[in-house]
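>> received
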Amino acid sequence: MEQYHHHDHNSRNIGLTIILNLGITIAQIIGGIVSGSMALLSDAAHNFSDVLSLMISWAARKLTRRKLTTDRTFGYKRAEIFAAFVNSTTLIVIAVVLAIEAIERLMDPIEVQGSIVIWLAGLSVLINGLSVLLIHKDAKRSMNMRSAYLHLFTDMLTSVAVLFGGVLMKYYGWYWVDGVLSLGIAVFLVYSSWAIFAGSLKIMMQFTPQSIDIEKIAIEVQKIDGLKNIHHIHVWQLDEHEIIFEAHVDLDMDIRLSEFEIILQDINEILRQYEIHHCNIQPEFAVEDNKELINNQVH
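>> returned
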């Protein structure tokens, strides 16, 4: 029951955050058009990406809690990884569009109504700050929610920059600042989202996790009595928490299944040191096949 209330509370927090950010997005779009501020429209675009990010993250969390079935034996465990990838990719695409617009604005600055920029940027700082607090705890446990948290946190920082730029434009007439801020926001978006983009892409491509040293594992496993070789190794992440290991092992003798289970326990002990708790081991005796650690033959 406590877990249910915890999830219900998290869903309410995400729902409230979506409503808050949708409201400030609409306000900033209108304000950006009226004031002529590219920086404010850039911040609005970032806020809108926050809304999409949160909606995708919320949907992904719902999917991951669904039960496993015979046609979905892993369920939707990768839904949150996919959401993190989509969110980070969205940020990078938005950054490229903003950079192009910012460069054009730098080449041809226009007058901007600083007062509107100041008020709306200040409101965005408050709303994004509240949103960051609402999902802070969830961000510690999930790459998906961390990507959404990153959206909100970076938007809060960019809103602070836009607020400062509004002050410079209103009181000093430095309208070129609008283009500089937009370009800075674009660069910061790419920088802040790249790690999540690369991390989620590696998981989706089933790359070996960075924490896993396959050669070191092979050396340790081959010290086990009764084994002479381990080969055809594959290691990948199902999601950001669960690592799966599979391999073939050559046995010295044609032994009973109960004897092999003792060897299997030793293998599991080694793998647990690497936080691997799910493995598939295929035992072999006198099998003529490729004994390379990583099999490059196409099946």
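>> Confidence is low (pLDDT under 50) at residues 1-6.
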